[in-house]
Sequence to fold (565 residues):
Amino acid sequence: MKNTVFELADVHYSYLGKFPALCGVSLEIRQGEKISVIGANGTGKSSLLALLDGLIFPDTGVIRGFGENMSEKVLNDAEFSKFFRGKVGLVFQNPEVQLFCPTVREDIVFGPLNLGVPGEEIRKRLDKLTETFGISGLLDRSPHQLSIGEKRKIAIASTLAVEPDVLILDEPTAGLDPLTSRHIVDIILQANIEGKTVITATHDMHIVEEVSDVVYVFGQDKKIARSGSPAEILSDDDFLRENNLVHLHSHRHKDKIHAHPHSHAD
Amino acid sequence: MLYSFWESCWQERRNDAIKKNNNNFIERSVTGALSFLKESVFAEEYASKKGFLQARDPRFKAAAALLLLISVMLAKTIPFLAVMYLFCLSLACFSGIGLRFFLKRTWVFIPLFSLFIAIPALFSFISPGDALWSFSVFGLKFTITRQGLFGAATFVLRVTTSVSFVILLALTARHTELLRVLQVFKVPRIFVMTMGMCYRYLYLFIGIVENTYLAIKSRIGSGVHHKKGREIVAWNIANLWQRSYQLSDQVYGAMLSRGYRGEYRTLNEFRATSGDWLLIGIAALFFALMIGANRAGMV
Fold:
């Protein structure tokens, strides 16, 4: 239990007190794990990630982060807030939300600057990320001048600049071309190899196996419908179809049209 | 049959009129405003060129512009102002800005800021003095005086030179640099940050407005009655307000997530070169000359 990062017990959360987003979620995430959260639209994946990042708080139930009972009061404490923000980084689904500074460079250094990292160290991190992501030509550009793939990379770089122990990603490959998608997956895997806990919410079944040790599937009732290894989950076509995660794919072989479930288990 | 023919002709003419006048007005207004914003606020064509001013440290460039503007305000004679204006034009040339483009860009604003004020000053009822030329309009006698002409010319030249320096600064510096300069000049950080975010998200909202307008056009075509057009514009404004409200919430969440606790910090990476010192030196020289000349009563 020593290496538990997050622990959720019967967490309920609703927007404006009347639109339920999570209805009794319990799970445990350990240091260094790769976790995937999959589920159809509106099943509460993004709400779960916002809870894990301490941006919203449960209506009922308990969420513990790094051994601390996470509540608004605890996150308002300057010391714990600084500790927690340095430990956990969230890459938002919409990079427009995350890239709010006038230039890419300022966006990348925003986190470490606000967490009081010394200037010299920030420059080192900036140089390292610039090289890793191949973004030297983008540093002085405004985020509005970038393509969606570039924005996504910068959003991840701006989160990694904090050097968090836990990297949370909300739909990191949504809307990306296959090559950029591959690059993002490589970055996620590299972060995990370096010891970071990686939590990924995704619809992209291509990447689930690679980015997960454990998969949590969220159902329409906004609860965890099932959890297990990627092999177990991805091989159960009936279960995936029930949860809107695979579809029947029909195509033509010579003069015959045939249909089969379309999934990406291997 | 005659009635239906007449009705179809009338409908066709009405649709044509809608297309030509009303809808074009809405379309022209929306697309014109958006393209002006994009061109004037976001175009960095000249700022990204290689030139004398583009290579300067933004702090020195902004300080020099400020000194030059004060010098222009202190100058009271046409020759001094003309020298400063020529200096501004030569800076534009050395910075790779076409003279024709630059004159066009600056002189667009001159009537707005000065001519309408300066014209009445030409006449004897505002500036009494030596008569140069008299004429009558509807029995009323107007006299242009030498003092009036001199005063109006000085005023127009002063406005022209000031506007030119400001436009030159805006053309050769990126907005992001200017924002950082504001911080160096101790403008409150929260103010600079708000301005930066306005700049950042203005572009996003322009995109949303453009796409919404195209989506409406693709569904209802181009023949929109002006009343409906006004409704669409009003609905668009409300929709945009809602989106911006949601976005502000999410952006604040993203800021909190990366450690923001109410104080905005930045990394200062400016570096001064000899060219920067040369520019500020020339600006300081103009400033000193104007102060000295003012004291001696020469300008």
